[in-house]
Automatic annotation (TrEMBL), chains A, B, C, D:
Signal peptide: none annotated. This is Amidophosphoribosyltransferase. Coiled coil: none annotated. The keyword 4Fe-4S applies. The keyword Acetylation does not apply. [4Fe-4S] cluster binds at residues 229, 373, 425, 428. PANTHER family: AMIDOPHOSPHORIBOSYLTRANSFERASE. Pathway: Purine metabolism; IMP biosynthesis via de novo pathway; N(1)-(5-phospho-D-ribosyl)glycinamide from 5-phospho-alpha-D-ribose 1-diphosphate: step 1/2. Pfam families: GATase_7, Pribosyltran. Its EC number is 2.4.2.14. SUPFAM superfamilies: N-terminal nucleophile aminohydrolases (Ntn hydrolases) (SSF56235), PRTase-like (SSF53271).
Length: 435, 435, 435, 435
């Protein structure tokens, strides 16, 4: 997963992008990068505040930025990437995947093209370059229309900043007015935190061009067919973000409520697995009347510390600690948003048992993840998805819970519908992939 | 405030201290330091994972460590500090203050002594050196008994590790068995996270000596007179820590409950100011039946980023964001543990109002802070304590709340008594200081 | 100017390249880079020992490396550069320039190609990629034969290491046997220092392929037409390097001797401008019988210190100091290899005068530099070449010498002929450029 | 060995000290440190330009600095060191040793004093602190008069900068006028390079105080008894430095001449071992008429590279390369200033032989080093001094030369006398130590 940002006509573009990426940091902590006017760049592995330091400040009023959680591509290939073309220099950062990337790379290379990286981003630049137009804007539109992709993208050119979403609108993208210019960001919360006005969700299948002395121009390059990633709502986005005008925290609460309605599972306390399970646990608590409690404490200072014991158990124990005083002697229902490989949940259940609970139940406010994501979420290969290999009984046994419940696929879909979210992608839950 | 750690006879002392300090990181993020056998040290400004990196690993099985939130002393004076004396080399890290430090420094300097730092720690070393004993252990006991202090301390000598608390036991200190040796830490959670056994709270007025081939020896050097810092329970410690066998989260909940009992203030939702107000808010919610809600989101990736706008308002807005979908149109009761200077709460109230609430109330689950702390918490000088300069009405006006309520001093004391916590220090609330 | 290195089948390729580049460091101090098997790279600005540190070690037995003194291209574009092509991954480092680079870039871009950098190196990769051959070796040969260039080059492919010189052989390149494999380097001294055997100068117009289980294969791709850069002898190479089997120091001495023969200029002492003028001064001293003296001391610890006063005068004074005890009251003849912009010599003359000399003469053991170098030496644009804008009298006045003498173009050519050096390029002296 | 610097009332003290230390860098490359007004410091291992970077700039107009070549003390104890005393803060940097340091440390510790470091410098601070005077200047004078030492020292106090030399004047120290203030430095060349005026050599047994609004005050604290380290002339100082008004390069040349006069050893060429043997070789060449030649090339880019092969032979070969074209077939006389352990010379002789010389002779323009230096030069323990364990015949055999000649002790002394250098220390040559 990734977070992207773009600015046009703002003071100290570098600092503004820094602040936007800081608010998008939850979307990727592996690397950060910025390109500012003149296509000067600062990039590095690690968190925004370690990479985009004030010592590396680049002056300028336009630019794009990127934070990344490794998916495909090697770690040292840090976006944005920049190239020189006949149509001017261009720099691109994207969030998502090109579905037929291998084919397209091959096609380009067969025509003699070379690739500096293994990133899908570079394919977009090649298409921009080979587009049968002299005009860079038309070339970009052509490139976007030719690529079967699931992405949001920001593009910096000498003459414009462009922000686009694929026709399915799988990944989010927003822009807002800031000072005399504009900011683009993956989530609206980043725009609100900076005090933007007129915050707008970019429509699937459109590209917005920001140029000097003109309002943003919206150009449709593909028919809209909404299949927004529902996992953004469930797990990825910040609770104070909104997609389709619907608040993420509220959707998670609704999923938690639905989970209660489907199973009516009783317990003494509802304990969220921090931080991802909090909203769902609140919904479950409100629907069921079972008090929510603080039974697991997360250490927010643990980042990418390499000294720490490498076995997963020790890592989990240093990140999450059980609050024995709260758990002891209780029937405890742990709520989390999802289970991918299952190893972390198994360790949490173990830790909670050691705290002396009477029973431990696990409630997941989404359906079992049975398929990989082809659109930019690193949910590992299918063989590692525990729910794709095991039935519920075996899963329950593996994680060690006295009971394990999931939300049904139907229930899940209903919640989104009732919340008013337009078409969503549920591929990882129902194997029904849009492209 | 500070966190301290010590280890004796463990594999890879450096790494173990690293892990202990990581769990104590909430006690200080300004600097970190470690001294390992042979008195080699690694020190630096910043977080544990940035300072105590694996590249700087020092082999050894014994050592002490320190994390610091600036109080007195300049930032580059990072503990532990080490000195050569006639009685051997000695390294010291402490948490707290020497009350008559200025007098004692002057006395030492008048005798011709010199100080390499401005740290109170160095006074302890001087007293160790001038103690009328040839034996280092007796010298340390003598030094501890002569110093009017409010501190916990770890001392590394060629022949022992010592861990001591002053007679009032103002700052916490624990030890536990680990492998064939021992670990000492400011909070018991750090020992539990590492899997220690036989975790023991060090008694006020005693020093524990860890030496080879012997169980820990406990020596009393002063009469016990418990005045444990109640602010450790209210704000400083992790919720999953315990002092006097009493859980911090449970005390905070009890304070929240008491706050409701004293004021019966009603609202549509109770919203904790994250992360410090969560436990109290939960107590308030449970006592009142008003649902707890997630109305403020904290960005945990914001550390000590220096690029960020320097005005306090922008910093608060990047750290905490209002969740409009939750707050809009509601009567909201914000719960926090305390108000020191008042500026942050004023900005939070402003932000909550902008989210479109009907009313905003503020509940503080401790009494007004009217005096500074002389024992190691950096609660600023009296003139900056907003509650020491203003009555409740003016305070309420300043923070901009429709109503502001505090817990009474009596109510506060009762909660601790009912929880079974022995004598506490409430100096910052009632100006009744122990020393 | 640049230095290049390549290794094939050696233990710890990274370390061997490090050591080769260290001996080639005089060819470029601005940046250093290495690519090792699997196309992992380490690159950075600064000296070899600061960039290619042991912490960044990459395992492997094959690789190429580069040190650079900025010519064209921005500083952050550090060689070697790597690309993915249909014919495999390829990494290239070169020393020199492509003469018609702008045309060739344009041609590639008009065919839809994109460039990740502004380096000429990337053009070679594009030609490799578009070559009408499936075979990577044939493709490289085709690319080399198509490019009008003045360069030496090393190329790493999954299946071979290649080392080539253009048809004029403007830049040097050597290889030698090392352990079970081979090392390639810009100067033979780097191979001798490492203990290589069978050191061979690569012939202009040929490429040498190093592959597994075979001796090096030499392939001619262009007709040889020797125009070796005479400035390599005069200034750039180490004195203990040899080209065409002729020692650099001996050529410089011969130039110094010739300078005496042409002018018979007398003085009390001959003082070399360190380090570049030493060999020439020795030749002058030997031919004239005037004693050589140590009248200017160079501080070798001054590298790229940015604190130092930015005006040129202060920089020169910190780098070179006059030895008053030697200079005072003497007629002094300063010997240097060349004058480019003239500013440094002016400051040196000033400094020498302040030391109380009776007379100061300047002897340059090469002709006036009247044209820029188009083949990789950064001798600035023509307008900055002081000798291209002024006659000898004005030059003498500008540098402030009592007399200024140059070697004649004819005398210069004769020295090379008599030393047995095959065809040389003297473009910067006689504007007669080979391509 | 070390280099020290001090400044009083200059603009940008940090930068000026940086520049002075850069010129003194040959006196120590292991660490560098600076303390500027307010006693803020920057310290680190490595070269001046890596440690005292512009990012670490500290504003101020007064300060002291230090560069160090390890002698006693661990590497992380980097000077200057600072302490708080009753008489104010004080910071000290010194070059040399306290002869009875162990006794004095013990005495201080027996009185209850503690030491933060193992440096002799701290003893001086203790004596300053215990001095029976309230006045800091009188206290410093008392401390200097009580300490049997061989040192030069700079001291920064809130109210003055002091610069002193012990009664023997073993280590050099100078000051000069700069802008409205003063600079102190170990060698006069550093003052000349910066453009100082009225450069003055501090008299042995005196301390110079620099204070505001007054000319420097010179106070004698001990009787002068000149025993200046003759090794400063032979090896340590820069050739363009002067002591007692006598130029270092000229003394070295005189030593080279004397070496010829004593032995009349003939050869085809005289080859200096760079850089230390150059001046002596020039003297030998001038006296003998044998031409000086450039037969060994030094790579100045090799600093403290840790990747390089750790065996001494490889290191020497990468630092020094034989110039075969010059050496082949010749009778070669290598000239160096001294032989300490003998291992490097052995490797050089080997290398020169491999270049195909007819004969290789070695001439050393100082007597055999038979005793260690107790005054700050790190000439290793006596057992490692090859000349203290072997007669000349065995030495010659060990280094592998066809002939090895040294200057006689008498001849050595005569040269200094005839040059007009006052009393010198020759302890390492004749075991006649001054203290």
């Amino acid at each position: 997963m990734c977070g992207i940002a773009g600015v046009w006509n703002v003071d100290e573009a570098y600092n503004v992008i820094h602040d936007v990426l800081l608010t998008l940091q939850h979307r990727g902590q592996q690397s950060a990068g910025v390109v500012v006017n003149g296509f000067k760049s600062v990039k590095g592995e690690g968190l925004v505040e370690n990479v985009l330091t004030s010592e590396r400040y680049i002056p300028g009023t336009k630019g794009i930025g990127h934070v990344r959680y490794s998916t495909y591509g090697s770690l040292d290939e840090i976006q944005p990437i920049t190239a020189h073309t006949l149509k001017g220099r261009i720099s691109v950062a994207h969030n998502g995947n090109i579905v037929d990337a291998d084919e397209k790379r091959r096609f380009i290379m067969e025509s003699g093209g070379i690739f500096a990286t293994t990133l899908d981003t570079e394919i977009i630049i090649h298409y921009f370059s080979i587009a049968p137009y002299a005009n860079p804007r038309e070339s970009l539109q052509w490139a976007l229309s030719r690529i079967k992709a699931a992405y949001s993208i920001v593009v910096l050119h000498d003459t414009f900043l462009a922000a686009a979403r694929d026709s399915f609108g799988i990944r989010p993208l927003f822009y807002g007015k800031f000072q005399e210019g504009y900011i683009v960001a993956s989530e609206d919360v980043a725009l609100r935190v900076l005090g933007c006005e007129e915050i707008t969700e970019i429509e699937p299948g459109t590209v917005v061009f920001f140029t000097d002395n003109k309002p943003p121009e919206i150009v449709r390059f593909a028919k809209r067919d909404d299949r927004f990633c529902s996992f953004e709502f469930v797990y990825f986005a910040r609770p104070d973000s909104n997609f389709y005008g619907v608040n993420v925290h509220e959707v998670r609460k609704a999923l938690g409520r639905k989970l209660y309605e489907e199973h009516k599972l009783q317990a003494d306390i509802v304990v969220p697995v921090l931080d991802s399970g909090f909203s769902g646990a609140l919904g479950y608590s409100q629907a069921s009347g079972i008090p929510i409690e603080y039974g697991l404490i997360r250490n927010h200072y643990i980042g990418r510390s390499f000294i720490m014991p490498k076995n997963r158990q020790d890592i989990v124990r240093r990140k999450l600690a059980a609050l024995n005083a709260v758990l002891e002697g209780k029937e405890v229902l742990l709520i989390d948003d999802s289970i991918v490989r299952g190893t972390t949940m198994k360790l949490i259940v173990e830790m909670v048992k050691e705290a002396g609970v009477k029973k431990v139940y696990v409630g997941i406010h989404s359906p079992p993840v049975v398929g990989p994501c082809n659109y930019g979420i690193d949910t590992s290969r299918r063989s590692e998805l525990i729910a794709s290999q095991n039935d519920l009984e075996k899963l329950q046994e593996y994680v060690g819970a006295d009971k394990l419940v999931y939300l049904s696929v139907e229930g899940y879909r209903e919640v989104f519908e009732s919340c008013g979210v337009r078409g969503i992608c549920m591929g990882c839950f129902d194997l029904n992939y849009p492209v």
